[in-house]
Amino acid sequence: MRETTQDDLILPFQIEGMDVRGRVVRLGPVVDTVLKQHDYPGPVSQLLGEALVLAAMLGSALKFEGTFTLQTKGDGPVRLLVADYVSPGEVRGYASFDRDAVAAADESARYSIPRLLGEGYLAMTIDQGPDTERYQGIVALTGDTLVDCAEAYFQQSEQIATTIRLAVGRIVLREPGGERQESWRAGGIMVQHLPDAGAAMRAEQRWDDDAWADSEGDSGGGQERDSWNRARLLLETVEADELTDPTISPERLLYRLYHEDGVRAFSPRDIAFGCRCSRERVEAVLLQYPRETLEEMVEEDSGRIVARCQFCDSEYAFEVDALALPGGAVRQ
Questions:
Q1: DSSP letters spanning 72-121
Q2: Is the bond preceding residue 88 a cis peptide, omega within 30 degrees?
């Protein structure tokens, strides 16, 4: 098995002799870019980093061109998490939160769903574009982690036995000049039990044949259950630092876990940070408003309308007269 050396990738795999497939995700510069550009508090960075890994893990299985969005909404200090995966391999994300409430969270439970997200829901949305109906699955925020929520979603909505491990952390690297640089890293691994691969999901063309399928039940009896339990229990031995350590390749991690059974890795897929915002898109939105509304948006200090992208933090400034004609007619 040839090892990959780069970060920011997704590696699909299959355990030989089992109806078990999965994915390894490793994020380096991508997750560091997303988390640092907004200077999120530690607990928020932890949650958003996990959401980015999950979005890449699930979105990369899309068989078609489109966007996979993982979103949480709750009544806790972190009101909203959004992570997008856009095929063939771009991710972005942001969080909306109450900084004081996050700081006041109990240190021992600061990463828990009840403490930070509160009551609400986790939604997974597939969007193939304006000419195609969106697919969305929703599950209540349950358990203590995003992993608990995601596993509950697959159990309740897709009836697919799923086990996931995620890790997000910071490492300190020494630059060539001797300076110390702290960077965020994230990783994850998932296995799923997929007997009778492809029956319903392939028919709906919802997921990539090489990665996902519907499961109507355990048709293989006790042997299949034993195989799945073995794969699941081995995955649960993964340590957090194994998922984020840049010196441990995804292939090496798979070998550590499943070398006795045999594991086959498929071609890795690259991931990059990507944001779809642009001056043209922001202007198109503003042009939908009458001049009176546009004038109410003007900032006193600058005398302009200023819009900032929640994902990449880019700023776009507009003069009202450049957006609307005199008399209130919006420029066409």
A1: EEESSSEEEEEEEEETTTEEEEEEEE-HHHHHTS-GGGTT-HHHHT-SEE
A2: yes
For the stretch 167-220, pLDDT in tens is 999 988 776 777 788 899 999 999 999 875 433 333 333 434 343 333 334 444
Q: Output the six-digit token pair for 310.
A: 């929640």
pTM: 0.85
Instruction: Look at 292 and 3; give whichever has higher pLDDT.
Output: 292
pLDDT of residue 108: 56
The size of the chain, in residues, is 332
| pLDDT tens by residue, 275-329 | 988 999 999 899 988 888 999 999 988 899 999 999 998 999 999 888 855 444 4
The C-alpha atoms of residue 70 and residue 58 are separated, in whole angstroms, by 9
Q: Is 42 exposed, middle or buried (0-12, 13-18, 19+ CB in 10 A)?
A: middle
- What single-letter DSSP state applies at residue 155? I
When mean pLDDT is compared across 51-55, 109-113, 207-211, the lowest value belongs to 207-211
Place of tokens 């441990």: 248
